[in-house]
Amino acid sequence: MARTITFIDAINEALHQEMERDDRVCILGEDLGMGGGVFKATAGLYQKFGEDRVLDSPLAEGIIIAAAIGASLVGYRPVPEIQFADFIGDAVDPILQQAAKLRYRSSGGFSCPITIRVCWGGGTGGGLYHSQENTVWFAHEPGIRVVAPSTAYDAKGMLIASIRDENPVLFFEHKKLYRTAKGEVPEELYTVPLDQASVRREGRDMTILTYGYATTIALEAAEEMAQRGVEAEVVDLRSLAPLDKKTIVASVRKTNRCLIVHEDTKTLGMGAELTAILNEEAFDDLDAPVMRVTGPDIPPVPFSPPLEKFFMVDKDKVVAGMEKLAAY
Amino acid sequence: MATKVGRAAAVAEAPTSRYSPELLLGLYRMMVKCRMCDEKARILFRQGKYAGNFYSNVGQEAGEVGAGYSLRPDDWVAPSHRDWTANIIKGAPLNLCFAQLYGKADSPDRGKSTPAHMGYPPLSVITPASTIAAQLMIGTGVAWGLKRQGKDSVVVAYCGDGATSIGWFHEALNFAGVHRLAVLYVVQNNLWAESVPLRLQTALSDLSDRAKGHGIAGVSVDGNDILAVYDAATEAIARAREGQGPTVLECKTYRWYGHSEIDPAKYRLKEEVEAWKKKDPIPRFEKYLADHKLLNETSKKQIRDETSHEIDEAVEFAENSPYPAPEEALEHVWA
Ligand SMILES: Cc1ncc(C[n+]2csc(CCOP(=O)(O)OP(=O)(O)O)c2C)c(N)n1
Ligand SMILES: [Mg+2]
Q1: Class of B5-318 per CATH?
Q2: Considering A16, A130, A140, A262, which one is annotated as catalytic?
Q3: For ligand 1, what atom is nearest to the CA of residue B166?
Q4: In this model, does residue A1 exceed pLDDT 90?
């Protein structure tokens, strides 16, 4: 039975149900036990599963990830949490040099099935150090999945799929979606594939490639432009690594135009790779250059409300981008 | 926790009755094996038999063997770049250890990792990264898992003196302290981290004092005294198995050769090197064994001959092992 719940409730429910189903699943991170998490994503877990499976870790991101890696080597399926993407620095070696490479460097002798939940994104007044996105640092590296759901349904299904996946997964949760994204979510356990993009809106005139909170904005912009006769197809990438090239290329082959929309800064953001893929695989199908609407190349995200607004992609910026692309 | 430093007299004083002849000869054989394998690895590198590099453990065998010798098959080892021989001590087949050097298809990682960065999954030796201290954190995570499973297995995690400066070393110790994990952190203090001397690494004189800041046990021993290391390690391991938490065991020792085979180590004084070579842990233990009538020239030669034969076979195996197919580079990225 499905009911309408928020993105964060979907995450919370996925953790509750997956921990009930599989006692190898355990979580650790800062403030997520007794406190239930700074956004309450892990509320109730400590009370239900106890300190053995819901661990308030020391304030040290490196060991949060490394302890999860070690525990996975002896059969656990840990779900460590990085409270804010902005503080992932100390854990970059554990994530990229250890988790992402352990399987490779041992030729499959060791595997590392951990799911790292990371809270990311701007638009909530978090300022320079509670708003960042660093998905592409990790998407660049082979051996670790990077996913960023945009709906409550996907949040639950992809989190469960991530926990069951044999690969390390970075599961990016946009904090702006936590309570604004609501949707029908089945009560029971289900999975959503980790390597498939989702066509959120069909259209014939242009493709918008996007992910995370920007998906919501792209959909709003697409509705506005539809009233002006431009039908955009909105593709939510969902997985940033590996990328679902098939869905991406198929959509652009159909619409012949592509606008990339992401909150991340422009230089070497996802848009750069997506453009390169389209160059390689859909060049003859393009009627216009691939265009981008992204965050500006400044440290994300300056605090003062007008500064934050300047940084964030919004409906008007996307509409302007769509107009430009349509007119080309 | 009191810090015991430099039990230099331990060898001479230790009553044999505390150790069975099998144990004493086993420790000796293993030190000789590690020394001979390591020296062979160096020769093979110099002969251009394999590419990459090698980080010799020669001079540090007492710490290596003393800490790892008493482990059970279900115990874990988290080695660093200088601990190729930790695989041998844990029981990895010598053939595979040499295949590892050559980057051959029979190496446990099928040629993916560099020669000295060896792990052996069947015996729970974690394939190391080059990142200093990473193995300490992962080993700590393993110990956390083992504790949650109610097992009394332990983790022996090796590192050098330089590794004690980086934050991850402390994150590991802190976490292990909070959860009283069964880890033995073996700090092989060889006085140098590449070309950086200890005095520029830390203001401490005993690296086991690092443990104090984390509320865990720390002990410093003469790292060239096999029995001193063995005693301290077995005591720490026994306490760990009983749930009494982790220990930092500093073995004061010396790296005979350069940081790696391409390092002539010109930054060190000849006198320093020569002085330490005189403290070679192997002849020192031979004297002890001879004094206790457990070793003579004949048995000594026999041990060396047997080991040498075993090594020759392993080298031959490695040389005959095929290289991995180039496309194997694509395997094991995704599960
Ligand atoms: C994080 C990190 N920084 C730098 C290096 C390069 N590096 C490799 S070994 C080494 C020195 C290590 O010294 P120590 O910990 O004393 O170990 P030893 O080599 O003496 O056994 C350095 C700087 C590295 N591998 N990892
Ligand atoms: Mg050193």
Answers
A1: alpha beta
A2: A130
A3: 1
A4: no
Per the CB < 8 Å rule, is A107 touching B178? no
Query: For ligand 1, which residues put their CB under 6 angstroms from it?
Result: B 81-82, 130-132, 159-163, 188, 190, 192-194, 255, 259
- Type of residue found at B167: G
Strand order in the sheet with B183-189: B76-78, B155-160, B183-189, B247-252, B217-222
Measured in Å, residue A94 CA sits from the centre of ligand 1 at 17
Q: What is the CA radius of gyration of chain B?
A: 19
- Exactly one of B19, B35, B259, B288 is catalytic; name it: B259
**A2-186 has which CATH code?**
3.40.50.970
Test the A interface: residue of B90, B175, B178 with most A CBs within 10 Å? B175
SS (H, E, C) chain A: CEEEEEHHHHHHHHHHHHHHHCCCEEEEECCCCCCCCCCCCCCCHHHHHCCCCEEECCCCHHHHHHHHHHHHHCCCEEEEEECCHHHCHHHHHHHHHHHHHHHHHCCCCCCCCCEEEEEECCCCCCCCCCCCCCHHHHHCCCCCEEECCCCHHHHHHHHHHHHHCCCCEEEEEECCHHHHCEEEEECCCCCCCCCCCEEEECCCCEEEEECCHHHHHHHHHHHHHHCCCCCEEEEECCEEECCCHHHHHHHHHHHCCEEEEEEEECCCCHHHHHHHHHHHHHHHHCCCCCEEEEECCCCCCCCCHHHHHHHCCCHHHHHHHHHHHHHC
B110: annotated active-site residue:
no
CATH number of A198-327: 3.40.50.920
Please list, in sequence order, all residues whose beta carbon lies within 8 angstroms of the beta carbon of residue B52, skipping any fewer than 6 positions away. B103, B114, B115
Q: If we measure between CA atoms, which residue out of B130, B105, B29 comes closest to residue B318?
A: B105
> B3 falls in which pLDDT band (50, 70, 90)?
very low
In angstroms, how far is CA B232 from the centroid of its own chain?
15
Residues of chain A with CATH 3.40.50.970: 2-186
Residue B82 C-alpha, separation from nearest chain A C-alpha, in angstroms: 17
pLDDT given for residue A225 in this prediction:
98
Report pTM.
0.95
pLDDT of residue B16: 63
User: In angstroms, what separates the C-alpha of B220 from chain A's closest C-alpha?
Assistant: 25
pLDDT tens-digit map of B274-311: 999 999 999 999 999 999 999 999 999 999 999 999 99
User: Tokens 């004189």 appear where?
Assistant: B205
3-state helix, strand and coil shares in percent for chain B, rounded to the nearest 5:
50, 10, 40
DSSP B325: P
Dihedral sign (CA A312, A315, A317, A318): positive
Q: Whose CA is nearest to atom 9 of ligand 1?
A: B194
Nearest-atom number in ligand 1 for the CA of B190 is 20
Q: Closest Cα to residue B244, out of B254, B236, B255?
A: B236
**Residues A221-259: tens digit of each pLDDT:** 999 999 999 999 999 999 999 999 999 999 999 999 999
pLDDT, tens digit, for every residue of B16-66?
678 999 999 999 999 999 999 999 999 999 999 999 999 999 999 999 999
Map out the domains of chain B as residue ranges. Answer: 5-318
* Residue appearing with tokens 């955009």: A232
Query: Which tokens sit at A58?
Result: 């020391």
**Strand, helix or coil for residue B156:** strand
